[in-house]
């Protein structure tokens, strides 16, 4: 059996039980449910405040039709942030490194925005294929380009998240391996590499949060165009 | 009307012992037991006490009677060394990754923990402040209402004085008016009487003058020539 760096991305199965179900359900288990009290404890107060602020910010550019998506987008954001951040812990499996999961989020949601746009306001939705102020000669070319770009969107959404997280995890593994291997031979180099690892970890924390935010933000933008 | 029938029959059935036991369940109304109306227990002020961020204090109190203060630490060290020496836990690249993320997490919690906790306190305090303001405003408006009512009552007391003053005013006006008219009447009467007095004086004066003239005339007429001679011879 050849051990490779990509084994960490294999979907974990234990005695035939797919553990990815537990991995996906973990964020739900970690957050307390707000009770019906008027004033809650610190954890629920902070959580409520954060979720309210985030939903407020996300729904600012959307009109009333877009507000129906508030629950979906906020819970998607919380799920993505939690899974990404939990994946930075050692010996954990990150579900969002799986392209299947990310495309499973991106394609249906993107398709929903497109269908909503085509159904409710087909002229406006098709009008987005031609940006304002294009020279007349370029119009046919631009429509083709914009259509291709439209169909690229779900792929881009899914692959962006997958690639960022996979690359990050892989880098952490590689540099940690370098530190581990160099420590007995060249400790000073190992310490420098450990400093690099520390900075990379900081970057990965940032990337985890930003990628989740970008995913949800882009979906809200696509929604804004079509609703 | 039918509900009253159900309640009455339920009550009777409840009292009728074992026969009514199964029928009571069917006629019992929901959500009226004392449990669902019981007061909600208060939230604890802070979470459970922990030492070093993860180990609950109860572990230390559990081990204290048998192993003293250093007991749990010996347990932890021994466990760690056992797992390392027996290679149950193998040190590999993940260890360094774990150390790295561990430093980030501990730094983050130590630096931002108290401020986040204080912030949640501020959010709750704002909620309390809003409610307290509503209550204070209600109390202030009620107190203002009491003050206004007391003022109105004081005004009512003063109403009698106001009426007395008005009554006095009116009486004074009437009095003044009466005296003016009396004065006028007196003047008019005096004028008439003065006129009559003057008239009588005039009469008397005219009579006097006339009398004097007549006496003079008669004296002059009665002066005889021999009287005139007599007066001249005296000189």
From TrEMBL, chain A:
InterPro entries, alphabetized: ATP_synth_F0_asu, ATP_synth_F0_asu_AS, ATP_synth_F0_asu_bact/mt, F0_ATP_A_sf
Top-rank lineage group of the source organism: Eukaryota
Keyword 4Fe-4S listed: no
CDD domains tied to this protein: ATP-synt_Fo_a_6
Pfam short name (any one): ATP-synt_A
Keyword tags: ATP synthesis, CF(0), Hydrogen ion transport, Ion transport, Membrane, Mitochondrion, Mitochondrion inner membrane, Transmembrane, Transmembrane helix, Transport
Catalytic activity reported: H(+)(in) = H(+)(out)
GO MF annotations in UniProt: proton-transporting ATP synthase activity, rotational mechanism
Lipid bilayer topology: Multi-pass membrane protein
Transmembrane segments: 12-31, 69-89, 101-118, 138-159, 171-199, 205-223
GO cellular component, one term: mitochondrial inner membrane
Subcellular location: Mitochondrion inner membrane
Assembly and oligomerization: Component of the ATP synthase complex composed at least of ATP5F1A/subunit alpha, ATP5F1B/subunit beta, ATP5MC1/subunit c (homooctomer), MT-ATP6/subunit a, MT-ATP8/subunit 8, ATP5ME/subunit e, ATP5MF/subunit f, ATP5MG/subunit g, ATP5MK/subunit k, ATP5MJ/subunit j, ATP5F1C/subunit gamma, ATP5F1D/subunit delta, ATP5F1E/subunit epsilon, ATP5PF/subunit F6, ATP5PB/subunit b, ATP5PD/subunit d, ATP5PO/subunit OSCP.
Family: Belongs to the ATPase A chain family.
Protein name: ATP synthase subunit a
Organism for this UniProt entry: Sinocyclocheilus grahami (Dianchi golden-line fish)
Lineage of the species this protein comes from: Eukaryota, Metazoa, Chordata, Craniata, Vertebrata
Automatic annotation (TrEMBL), chain B:
InterPro entries cross-referenced by the UniProt entry: ATP_synth_Bsub_B/MI25, ATP_synth_F0_suB
Keyword Magnesium set for record: no
GO cellular component, one term: mitochondrial inner membrane
Pfam families xref list: Mt_ATP-synt_B
UniProt cross-references to SUPFAM superfamilies, sorted A to Z: ATP synthase B chain-like
Function of the molecule: Subunit b, of the mitochondrial membrane ATP synthase complex (F(1)F(0) ATP synthase or Complex V) that produces ATP from ADP in the presence of a proton gradient across the membrane which is generated by electron transport complexes of the respiratory chain. ATP synthase complex consist of a soluble F(1) head domain - the catalytic core - and a membrane F(1) domain - the membrane proton channel. These two domains are linked by a central stalk rotating inside the F(1) region and a stationary peripheral stalk.
Family: Belongs to the eukaryotic ATPase B chain family.
Protein name: ATP synthase subunit b
Origin species: Sinocyclocheilus grahami (Dianchi golden-line fish)
Gene label: atp5pb
């Amino acid at each position: 059996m050849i051990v490779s760096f990509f084994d960490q991305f294999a979907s974990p199965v234990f005695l035939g039980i797919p553990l990815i179900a537990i991995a996906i359900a973990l964020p739900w288990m970690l957050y307390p449910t707000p009770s019906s009290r008027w004033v809650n404890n610190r954890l629920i107060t902070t959580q409520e405040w954060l979720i309210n602020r985030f939903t407020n910010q996300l729904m600012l550019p959307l009109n009333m039709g877009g507000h129906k998506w508030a629950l979906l987008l906020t819970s998607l954001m919380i799920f993505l942030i939690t899974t990404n951040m939990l994946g930075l812990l050692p010996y954990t499996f990150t579900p969002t490194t799986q392209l299947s999961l990310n495309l499973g989020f991106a394609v249906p949601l993107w398709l929903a925005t497109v269908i909503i746009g085509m159904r409710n306001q087909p002229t406006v939705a098709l009008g987005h294929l031609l940006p304002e102020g294009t020279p007349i000669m370029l119009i046919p070319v631009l429509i083709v380009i914009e259509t291709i770009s439209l169909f690229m969107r779900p792929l881009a959404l899914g692959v962006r998240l997958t690639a960022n997280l996979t690359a990050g995890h892989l880098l952490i593994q590689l540099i940690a391996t370098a530190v581990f291997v160099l420590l007995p031979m060249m400790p000073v180099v190992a310490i420098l590499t450990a400093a690099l690892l520390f900075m990379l970890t900081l970057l990965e924390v940032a990337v985890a949060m930003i990628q989740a935010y970008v995913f949800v933000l882009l979906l809200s933008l696509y929604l804004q165009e079509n609703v | 009307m039918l509900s009253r029938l159900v309640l009455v029959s339920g009550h009777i059935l409840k009292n009728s012992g074992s026969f009514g036991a199964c029928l009571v369940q069917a006629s019992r109304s929901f959500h009226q037991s004392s449990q669902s109306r019981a007061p909600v227990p208060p939230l604890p002020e802070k979470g459970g006490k922990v030492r070093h961020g993860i180990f609950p204090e109860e572990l230390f109190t559990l081990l204290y009677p048998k192993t003293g203060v250093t007991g749990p630490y010996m347990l932890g060290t021994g466990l760690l060394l056992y797992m390392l020496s027996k290679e149950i836990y193998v040190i590999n690249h993940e260890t360094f990754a774990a150390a790295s993320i561990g430093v980030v997490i501990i730094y983050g919690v130590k630096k931002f923990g108290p401020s986040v906790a204080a912030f949640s306190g501020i959010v709750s305090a704002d909620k309390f402040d809003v409610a307290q303001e509503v209550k204070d405003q209600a109390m202030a408006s009620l107190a203002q209402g009491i003050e206004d009512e007391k003022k109105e009552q004081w005004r009512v007391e003063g109403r009698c004085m106001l009426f007395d003053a008005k009554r006095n005013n009116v009486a004074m006006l009437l009095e003044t008016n009466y005296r003016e008219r009396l004065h006028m009447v007196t003047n008019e009467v005096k004028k008439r009487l003065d006129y009559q007095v003057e008239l009588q004086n005039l009469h008397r004066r005219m009579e006097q003058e006339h009398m004097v003239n007549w006496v003079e005339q008669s004296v002059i007429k009665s002066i005889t020539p021999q009287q005139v001679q007599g007066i001249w011879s005296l000189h």
